[in-house]
Write a structure and sequence with these properties.
Radius of gyration: 20 Å
Number of helices: 4
Structural class: alpha+beta
Order of helices and strands: EHEEEHEHEEEEH
Shape: elongated
Largest sheet: 9 strands, antiparallel
Helix content: 25-40%
Number of strands: 9
Length: 184
Amino acid sequence: MSSNEVVNMVASTQYCDSLDINDIADELEIDYEQEQFPGMVYRVEDPKVCILLFRSGKAVATGARSSEDIETAFKHLHAVLTEKGFLTTEFDEDGIILQNIVVTHDYGQNLDLNTLILMLPFDKCEYEPEQFPGLIFRLDEPKAVCLIFSSGKCVITGCNSLEKAEEAAEILNDELNGCQELSE
């Protein structure tokens, strides 16, 4: 029996046209070294989400496990920036764009990756165990990358909706089931 779990979601939004990140970092007492990275790192504790805030007014959230977590984190930072006088507009939930979802998928049984690489479409696979212990399997539709490990655990990334991530997991499961049937 296979199972899926969302382990990370990445989304972006645009708060405004420009921000003075140095002033914001000073006001919020956040270490910001623009020479190291152009974005200021803001950590939301509940839900546990990290937001990168850029001079362009763009914000990127990572570490969320649900769309609700993303929205809550973006609203939290918006409220802080508004309270401190850096923003004057209302937050627009419709401006949140889901960029990537990372899902773990458990196929439920061990896999022989040396056999699997011979059975999956050659042009969609990479497997170099001396470089990386997982088999890399690329899906065209939905566009996703699946990292398959001998334990049967898989990581699916590259989808921009939960529906596409679930569809990618189903396609992966079907491919693995087909390979298992052929190898018996």
